[in-house]
Amino acid sequence: MGAAYFYHLTAAPLEQTLPMLIGKAQGAGWRVVVRGRDAARIVWLDEKLWAGDPTSFLPHGIAGGDHDADQPVLLRADTQTVIDGCLMAVDGAEVTAGEVAACERVCILFDGLDGNALARAREQWKALTDAGAPAQYWSQEGGRWEMKAEKA
Predict the structure, then answer these.
(1) CB 4 within 8 A of CB 137
(2) Which residues pair with 62 in a beta bridge?
(3) Domains of the chain
(4) What residues contact residue 38 under an 8 Å CB cut-off, 6+ apart?
(5) pLDDT tens per residue across span 100-109
(6) HSE (CB half, 13 Å, CA atoms) of 148?
(7) pLDDT digits over 1-13, tens only?
């Protein structure tokens, strides 16, 4: 059974934090699906990942291609995929307690400087933990990640 890790972004934006977390998930041997809510935003993330640090290249693709099943990192703006490794939800994308249970890990990344994103993350925390999903809340206070809360 997996767990949901909530990442409250304040010191570094999504386009900097996401590659770091993807690298950690890949280091654990997990396939990664990045789920967003908006196709244009997924294209933006795709461009940011391709333009990232060449020494930490992350092979990936946008869902809908011929080789989706072979992608180590798949970006998508819908919930139509089975996750067998790590799901990273951005921009308030939906995550169910069943997905948390089925995945190795679910990472929910949200912009802590955006009131709407913060409210959505609180809703997700409550829904997932009320459904019995274990969760951890991580914050970037002082520029480094610290676990601030945990619910088993």
Answers:
(1) no
(2) 75
(3) 4-151 (3.40.50.10110)
(4) 77, 91
(5) 999 999 999 9
(6) 11
(7) 799 999 999 988 9
